Amino acid sequence: MPYGYNGKILHVNLSKRVWDTEEPGDAFYRQYGGGSALGLYHILREMPPHIDAFSPENMLTFSLSPLTGAPVSGQSRMMANAKSPLTDAIGDSQCGGYFPAEMKFAGYDAIIFRGRAPHPVYLYIRDGHVELRDASHLWGKTTHAVEQILKQELGDKEIEIAQCGPAGEKLVRFAAIINMASRANGRTGLGAVMGSKNLKAVVVRGAKGAKSIPWADPQAIIELTKLGPKIMPDNADMAGLAKYGTASVVMFQNTIGSLPTYNYDSGDFSGAEKISGEVLYDTLLRGAQQGRQNTTGRESCYSCSVRCKRVVETEWKGNKVEPHYGGPEYETLSTFGSYCGVSDLNAVSLASQLCNAYGADTISAGATIAFAMNCYEQEILSNADTGGIELRYGNADAMIQVLKDTLTRATPLGEMLAEGSARAAQKIGDGAPDLVVAAKKQEFPAHMPQAKRSLALIYAVNPFGADHQSSEHDPMYEEGNTSDLYMERLNQIGLYEPQPQRSLTVEKVRFALKTQQFYSGLDTFGLCQFVFGPAWTLYGPSHVVDLIRAATGWNYSLYEYMLAGERRLNMLRAFNAREGMDRTQDALPKKMYQALKGGATDGVKLSQAELEQAKDAYYAMSGWDVKSGIPTRAKLQELGIEWVADIIGV
């Protein structure tokens, strides 16, 4: 009897309007776990190489894991994969909320989409029953409007919906997949892949809920569930996350010179306090204006006690910012705040709402507008190019207007920026490419590799572009910053020697790789990186293994878990190799080698030699060919995926 999973993968051909069910056995789930590894198993085997991301041949996968839906914090995650229209590399993105657990209860561990529907459709799954329904009446509508229409149309307020918004319909290359009108598979543009397939939404409902999934050891899961709230008050990082959300780190980042400002020209923003988690908590969180305890301004994902999601309510110049669109996360506060030089929290919250309503990644959206502002400040873009908009740093009105134009492709400037900063820069020319802050054409998140040195390496080598959630950050493993809790957990994965601050030593490279493999395991088993992690989180590495054992009944080890994470990384890397990408694409933008201005990182910069040496060490430690950065046959054999070697010809 399988524990923890349905044993069913749904394959949907949108072109032919047919579907069937695959039923892999226990050995498959133990080998690949779920999440991105499950998605890549099918993509690598079945999708032709070198296709356009908007081609019907692109496959889109929604994948869960054997842990999804367990009554414990941090397990309700869904991983999406396809070829990315933003990077032309593998696309990979995760979401939280209630959709992942509900999809599991509806009867499937994964959904794999092929083809393109002849007209807009949505997929409806209820207790294993599958339908493709017309979605023409939903096309062009914002995410909250679609939620309202479908809940009324289907007569069920408990359905969960993952959808592409109007930005995805317009093929904005950084469009997101949105659920609950506030949770996103944000990165790599997979909402645009949905739009290209005329797939407006996926609707799921499992009437039996958690009772539909058998667990190997329910009592052990209950004990883990009870443990979380007990240990949370003693973990300052988690207590801060619960109270202030991810916005809690705004001031910390500014203090260490790692709050990206003016399109990464500085790590210090004079208006940081005005967009901080503390100010957001005191002013904009739903209920704050009435002086109530802000419990009404926090939401959770399914069965999570942390409740880190912000819910804000305010307005900006007559535009209401409504609670059903959630509220800004740290990345959003930075990309639309410090990146753009905007310290108006209401305007930043409206920008967050626009991205959630239209379905776009707030990181790429805000960073792309900051890039355009940088071009304007340097007179590479003129008023004629912007349609008369004074696109200067600090101009919140300009930021909001250009964002609207970009999400709808409403103007020539918006049309250009909807392609992302790297493609826009190529079109603009005249020095614009030097102002792009992206890796593999994906815009940088709000953690600066100049201050957090191992992130320079991870941003460069990460298969799906710059990403801050693919490894642990340097302060956890730096002298003077680490703690007993951090080290006790890092010891479990073989890390014992904290390094000097702002270093990129061989040991720091090992820290980057080991924690990247650990995080990759989280995206294989569908666990939230704010709840399960190798250092600061609510649960540590040993708890991850305990949960896998309790859910599945497997005699699982931390060693096997780390191999699962490594296997996923190699599969992601193999996809890129098949597309012709190698070490030469593992590069950082020109701005990383220019000195920062102001604050704690004034004068700090990276060096090309430093990065290249770190890459040499990283590839060697990974068992990859150092010259090309491509996984070797020996490594793929070691991981039990020799078939991947045959696909990429090594």
Annotated CATH topology of the largest domain: Aldehyde Ferredoxin Oxidoreductase,  A, domain 1
Structural class per helix/strand content? alpha+beta
Number of helices: 25
Approximately how much beta-strand content do the residues carry?
5-15%
Roughly how much helix do the residues carry, as a percent range?
25-40%
SSE topology:
Blueprint lengths: L8 E5 L4 E5 L3 H7 L2 H12 L13 E4 L14 E6 L6 E6 L3 H7 L4 E5 L6 E6 L2 E6 L8 H11 L6 E5 L1 H4 L7 E3 L3 E3 L4 H7 L2 E7 L12 H14 L4 H9 L5 H6 L21 H7 L14 E2 L9 E2 L3 E3 L2 E3 L8 H9 L6 H14 L3 H16 L5 H4 L9 H13 L3 H6 L3 H8 L9 E2 L2 E2 L9 H9 L22 H9 L13 H19 L16 H12 L5 H21 L29 H15 L10 H6 L3 H7 L2
Parallel strand pairs: 1-6, 7-12
Antiparallel strand pairs: 1-2, 3-4, 3-6, 4-5, 7-8, 9-10, 9-12, 10-11, 13-14, 15-16, 17-18
Helix pairs in contact: 2-22, 7-21, 11-12, 11-13, 12-15, 18-20, 20-22, 20-23, 22-25
Pick out its properties.
39% helix; six-stranded mixed sheet; alpha+beta; 12% strand; Aldehyde Ferredoxin Oxidoreductase Protein, subunit A, domain 3; 650 residues; globular; Aldehyde Ferredoxin Oxidoreductase Protein, subunit A, domain 2; Aldehyde Ferredoxin Oxidoreductase,  A, domain 1; 3 domains
Walk me through the structure.
With 650 residues, the protein is of the alpha+beta class. The chain folds into three domains: 9-212, Aldehyde Ferredoxin Oxidoreductase,  A, domain 1 (4-Layer Sandwich); 242-436, Orthogonal Bundle (Aldehyde Ferredoxin Oxidoreductase Protein, subunit A, domain 2); 453-648, Orthogonal Bundle (Aldehyde Ferredoxin Oxidoreductase Protein, subunit A, domain 3), CATH 1.10.599.10. It has a six-stranded mixed β-sheet, sandwiched between helices. It has a six-stranded mixed β-sheet with strand order 8-7-12-9-10-11. A two-stranded antiparallel sheet has the order 13-14. Helix 12 packs parallel to helix 15 (396-408). The longest helix has 21 residues, at 558-578. The model has no long low-confidence stretch (mean pLDDT 96).
